[in-house]
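Batch manifest, entry 17 of 40.
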Amino acid sequence: MSIQNSMAQSKGSWVERQFKLKENKTDVRTEVMAGITTFMTMAYILFVNPSILSETGMPFDAVLMATAFSAILATLLMAFLANYPFALAPGMGLNAYFTYSVVFGMGYTWQVALGAVFISGVVFVLLSLSGIREMIIEAVPATLKSAISAGIGLFIAFIGVQNAGLVIDDPATMVALGSFSEPATVLAAIGILITGILIARNIKGAILWGILATTLIGIPMGVTPMPSGFMQIPRFSTWAPVFGQLDIRGALSLGLIEVVFAFLFVDMFDTIGTLIGVSHNAGFLDKEGRLPRASQALLADSLGTIGGAIFGTPTVTTYVESAAGVAVGGRTGFANVITALCFFLSVFFLPVIGIVPAAATAPALIVVGAMMLKPVVSIDWNSMDEALPAFIAIAAMPFTYSIATGIALGFIAYPIIKLACGKGKEVHWLTYILGALFIIRFMYLG
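Output type: structure tokens
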């Protein structure tokens, strides 16, 4: 018994030394809950990413392995380099751009496209080491930081209502209310109520328990399928068709500047937006609105993209679903260690992981989205030079289905309106440059 206690104390002391749990006002149990919750809300990428990339001719099973291990690598890098609970994985939207624009639209092979992703990752690293990406974060006006957090909240809530079937596409009005004759939609609505009540009653790990409870309720409703098995031993040889198959020379010889720029642009500002938004909600930003260890966080993201390209998947980015783990109480990189462990175990327990329906994870995104709207109270809505850029950034994210676009439009509107109001000196010089670059970006890339 004494040996076991000694081992437990040794383990606890290592975790404390490495991740500074007490300093960050958290504990092992909370971080474990947060890590599992984050994994549950982003586990869909294990199935969605391979389904999109397989259209290019990449083997589904091979991409699934690449997805899991690129998420593990990048998430652990964030844990040990920056000590933040921000999980990473191949980015949604970026995988669609990879498949439908670069491979299908431009006619490049997926190997060459991976080469372009690798090059963009190298550029990310150089920008991170030079401090340019950190400077960009510091140049974001306080109003836009609040707006970005709220906009991301609406964005992930919109993803949630879509996954739940609560909002569907409509040819006449673009969106419409989903049908409550669908069991999945009803289950999602039940899940929202369960999760909301658990949070209102201050139940520890409410979001995770909400996901699990909704999954179980879905069994008699016919939404949650019974697992085909419990465990399967993965064949790592299935990874071979995509591992290390990137064509860097081909990407360089073809001069894919536009492609590299697109990967660079979307990942940079999606990541910056996510870091600012989730950090604002978690209280990570200092009194000046800066994110401590931002350079380490951005470096982890950059190295994750390089690793992902080698593993066989498009750009790896920081996931906005990390907000779910932060909402549970995650405050350190130890939550990321748990998330990475879950991704590793998922390779062995895919039959069980696969039964969690979208209707069970969607409520978590919706509730967290609601919680992320709190920063709007810090925006000066009585001053239109502050309110309008904030509103544009907030509204653009769900309306354009892009965090990066919302940030871009906010950066364009803010300096222009400030200048027109004679308050140009209040704007950081880098904000003017970014605003101009965003205008050029829209003119050039559309």
